[in-house]
Inverse folding.
């Protein structure tokens, strides 16, 4: 049963939303870049520094044990949130970018010349460049799943390029530039038939939908805390235990070792093998209340409401003369990328900012997507469950005004 969200109550939980920007009430539509933080997250991080601060996994003293407990409680919350089998499979990183780099760096021994790595034409740069570098180091070939005019990945192309020499398939769950929800279950099932590993970039899916990594059967799955109402500087890498045991460590130093002599060392057990050095403790501590918060509201209810915003925004924006939505996939997250004939996205973004409306403009760290659609960039409005239809009306009026000024 989908209940209606109490948006006023939700908005009251986010202090940053209640301010004016350039003399206008803030309308925050840049949730695809980062989300705002509810008071419970801010409070948890302040409480950590006010009461608990100590290094984790080290001291026998009380504060160190409390800090370790909070840190590991967050790992358990993440595990439960994405339904991983074990907390050994949850690695804390500094973000999706580092999670991808970790696996790509550690994958050298699993790829050789003549093998291939598959990515898609609608990836964030952070799910392109690490694989390009892996291919360059190993002599493997980089193959691309192309996208159709709606911004949907072409399954027949995937079927053609996937073969027994494919070692890794790395695709996003939801495109940050287009909003496309990709059929990752199908990619995963097909890739596994050829023995390839699959990495899912879930940076844009975790905030908008329920994730079950065991149902997906992904080998690796990554997301960033800051895009799901948690702090910046913290990310998650999920990896199947069997894979994480096979991969060599990513970085070396304290925390990730079992035993060190001056000549050689052995590695700590999972997950610590991949967590060298003092981690971003207060950030990890802040991720737990963020996930608890969205679970309390209900991820399904969030998704349903955000879908309403998507439909409303799409309908209203399309009434603007010359406006074209880039990314019209049948299955989409609550994100609208658009261009308007005779205007530049940057100019629209500047005028919207003067009206208090925060949108992203440009290539959204996805230059190949812009190349695919032969545009320099888009204006992107990405919605969260704390946004409202009234705010969308302000956006639409703002775009209309900008277009009049610019044409
Ligand atoms: C934001 C984003 C990333 C990178 O996340 P960081 O938090 O900057 O590391 C990767 N992929 C997608 C789809 C994203 O939206």
């Amino acid at each position: 049963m989908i209940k209606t969200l109490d948006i006023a109550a939700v908005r009251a939980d986010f202090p940053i939303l209640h301010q004016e920007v350039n003399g206008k009430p803030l309308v925050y539509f840049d949730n695809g870049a980062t989300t705002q933080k509810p008071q419970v997250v801010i409070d948890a991080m302040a409480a950590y520094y006010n009461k608990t601060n100590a290094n984790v996994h080290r001291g026998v003293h009380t504060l160190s044990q409390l800090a370790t407990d909070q840190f590991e409680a967050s790992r358990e919350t993440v595990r439960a949130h994405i339904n991983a089998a074990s907390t050994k499979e949850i690695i804390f990183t500094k973000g999706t970018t580092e999670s991808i780099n970790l696996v790509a760096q550690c994958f050298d021994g699993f790829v050789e010349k003549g093998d291939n790595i598959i990515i898609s034409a609608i990836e964030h740069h952070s799910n392109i460049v690490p694989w390009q570098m892996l291919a360059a180091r190993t002599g493997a070939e980089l193959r691309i799943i192309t996208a159709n005019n709606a911004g949907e990945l072409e399954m027949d192309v995937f079927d053609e390029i996937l073969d027994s020499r494919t070692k890794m398939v790395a695709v996003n769950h939801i495109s940050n530039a287009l909003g496309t929800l990709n059929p990752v279950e199908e990619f995963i099932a097909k890739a596994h038939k050829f023995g390839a590993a699959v990495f899912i970039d879930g940076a844009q899916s975790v905030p908008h939908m329920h994730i079950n990594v065991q149902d997906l059967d992904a080998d690796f799955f990554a997301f960033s805390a800051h895009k799901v109402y948690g702090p910046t500087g913290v990310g998650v890498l999920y990896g199947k235990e069997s894979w994480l045991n096979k991969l060599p460590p990513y970085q070396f130093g304290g925390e990730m070792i079992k035993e060190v002599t001056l000549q050689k060392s052995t590695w700590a057990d999972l997950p610590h093998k991949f967590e060298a050095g003092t981690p971003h403790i207060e950030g990890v501590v802040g991720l737990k209340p963020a996930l608890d918060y969205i679970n309390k509201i209900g991820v399904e209810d969030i998704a349903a409401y955000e879908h309403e915003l998507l439909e409303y925004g799409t309908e209203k924006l399309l009434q603007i003369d010359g406006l074209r939505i880039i990314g019209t996939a049948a299955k989409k997250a609550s994100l609208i990328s658009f261009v308007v004939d005779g205007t530049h996205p940057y100019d629209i973004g500047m005028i919207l900012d003067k009206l208090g409306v925060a949108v992203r403009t440009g290539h959204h760290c996805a230059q190949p997507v812009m190349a695919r659609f032969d545009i320099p960039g888009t204006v992107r409005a990405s919605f969260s469950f704390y946004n409202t239809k009234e705010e969308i009306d302000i956006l639409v009026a703002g775009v209309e005004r900008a277009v009049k000024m610019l044409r």
